[in-house]
Amino acid sequence: MRRWAAAHDGPVYLRLRRADAPLPAGALVQPALDAAARLAPLGREVAVVNVHTIKPLDVETVVAMARRCRVVLTAENHSIIGGLGSAVAEALMEAGVAARFDRVGVRDTFAEGGSTPYLFRKYGLDAEAIAARLQALWEAPR
């Protein structure tokens, strides 16, 4: 990412995390995969997409997956305001995709520091919370 940012013509924002553990493929990708594994025995098939870049957003992939799945849950390990969920919601609305939609992330609150497992559990970012939000989306009345 550092090389890409240096070569990019324009402003760049890189969000870095503490080096308290090996860097995962995406901060909430593993909890999302774990949530999918929890839901599989219930007959729920979950597709997980690693959206590693919000701008530019891969709109084509996001829209194609939403049309295929009809239920979309974004998961981000920071504030939901103006983040991935907002960008995905805009892309889906502009493409005319009607999908059940929700966001996992830190709600509009001041958060404290702590270990990643503690914070993920407290703010509903762990696999259990992601699985519960997906289940609620599927069960919500249309």
Can you describe what's shown?
With 142 residues, this protein is of the alpha+beta class. It has one domain (25-139): 3-Layer(aba) Sandwich (Rossmann fold). It contains 6 helices and 2 strands. The protein has helices spanning 2-7, 29-39, 59-69, 84-94, 116-122, 127-139, and strands spanning 71-79, 100-106. Helix 4 (84-94) links the parallel strand 1 (71-79) and strand 2. The mean pLDDT is 90.
Percent of sequence in beta strands: 5-15%
Give a quick account of the main beta sheet: strands, pairing sense, barrel closure. Answer: 2 strands, parallel
Distance between the termini: 41 Å
Provide the domain count: 1
- Tell the overall outline: globular
Mean pLDDT: 90
The gyration radius over C-alpha positions equals 16 Å
CATH class: Alpha Beta
Helix content: 40-55%
Low-confidence stretches: none
Order of helices and strands: HHHEHEHH
CATH architecture label name = 3-Layer(aba) Sandwich
Question: Any idea of the CATH topology?
Answer: Rossmann fold
- Report strand order across the widest sheet: 1-2
Number of strands: 2
| SS field, number of helical segments | 6
* SSE-based structural type: alpha+beta
